[in-house]
Request: fold
Amino acid sequence: MVKRLLCLLMGLLLTVPALAEDMPQVDESADTMVLLTEEELLERMAQTPEEGQADHSSFAVLPEDMAMADEDVFTLLLVGSDAYTDNHRGRSDTTMLVQVNAQEKRIRVVSFLRDTYVKIPGKGSNRLNASYIWGGDQLLRETLKTNFNVTADAYLEVNFDRLVRVIDAIGGVEVEVSEKERKQVNSILRFYNEKIGDPESDQLLEESGLVQLTGKQALCFSRIRKIDGDTQRTGRQRKVIEAAFRKVMTMDRAAIVLLVMQNLSVFQTDLTLADAMALIPLAIRCKNASFETLTIPAQGMYSTRTIDGMWVITPNLRKNRELLHSFLGLKEE
Reply:
């Protein structure tokens, strides 16, 4: 259970923004929904019930100490869907395996290229990103296990609209953007604005360099591949994730509680609010964690070809599995 808890909160910290200070809080312990300000929520958390009264504050307890599991390594499957809204699942436009090592204070992020041609259980062979639209996180997990012999303790999925909302909630992320990338951001953003019914020029990026990206701009930055390729695109995605993580980790313990309570519903995940609450002390240990990254298939360990009219990447599975397992510190079976 502890493994599953850490995975959820690390996913939140990697992809979810902080909270607006004036946003009302929800007391989920009551029979009816009660809106609380941040001050009221913190006061409720600090209250001790009188004799004979029910204690409804346990949902937001902030423990100073918590028994630690013997294992400090946790793995999250992080999925970015190419769906514009929640009305359909979409393909896994982004597939990342995030390993959190709380003892070593390291976060290792593996990006799997979406055009990787793999065996999909029960479906034959196809691009990796097709597995998610066919069978959700379960089939994607099975596909990663079948081809690369890796597993995850939990999953977390965010689509275009959700990503925009959560990045905007922290006031954006600071990322280095080249002039070529700026032009591509605006090209993609014009299309995205048209797709969702916003003015074409809404939030166009005016400057390059170290800039503060809005949710829309961060989404479009993460989707650039025309000027180089998918390997570089996944690198941009990791930049956005790390920037969001660093910003969230400036929050104090109480703010992280509010973060989880207000934003958990933004995601598709297999973990609960109660799980996330219990996870907070573990996640705080990773506040200053270093980021290490890997792309699979790795350079020199794949070829490209056209199969049934599809341009695909065919990996050398043995070499990529060995590299992946070495990177994650996994034992070969």
In short: The radius of gyration is 21 Å. Residues 12-36, 42-49, 52-70 have pLDDT under 50 and may be disordered. DSSP finds ten helices and 14 strands in the chain. The first strand starts at residue 25 and ends at 27.
